[in-house]
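Recap from last week: sequence in, structure out.
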Amino acid sequence: MDGKGMFHRRSQASPIPLAVLAVGVALALGGCGSATTLSETTTTGGTIPKGRPQAIEPTAGAQAVQVTPEDPVGDPNAHATPLSVVKRELRQEHVAVSANNATYIDPLQYVNRWERTDQGVDATMPVGAPILAPCPVKILAIIPDWYAGQPLVYFELLDGPDAGRVQYVAEEITNIAAPGSILQQGQVIARYASSGTAIEYGWSTLNGITLARATTGYEEGQVTPAGVNMRNWLNALGANAGPS
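Predicted structure tokens:
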């Protein structure tokens, strides 16, 4: 952010304090849970599990009220909520939508440094920079202490070729849109916080675990097919995230 308070795309960076009040779900970082059995091909050619959606008619409104953390670091020692609770929250909020030809925008327009590919794609941004809704999205759930006291937010794409699929952004984020809210394309899902471990943006499943863990497992730092697919998906939107 410059002296005039304006963000410049792919400009300069900073770190984050954060945490988030959420929907009462916490996710075990291990490869627990099972993958969904249905799968489809994404716009970039990979396969991702597809859950059975609830028949809910989405209605987009004003920008959702944001969940602002009161405790900037969360509780990294908190006991994880059972995975069954996470699954239930996600499935209750999931919307029945059909794929169509609507287009997406790059949700990470203010990245100043692209980092590794692992479960998703890692990146840094200027403090306060927004992570944007790539299309109309529904915020499904927030995990307050996903990694090192930092949150993860799940959201469903409600439009375009990948409608009905679930993405997440995690770690160095704050000011997260409230669970249950529906955002229009370009509205703010969350903002880059002032300290933390950068962000991770990737695919998720309705089982409450990342697509990387659900399909191929994951060890710290491992490049996964799900992560590569996400980097390709972002690059197709003009993100210039580079090769995996």
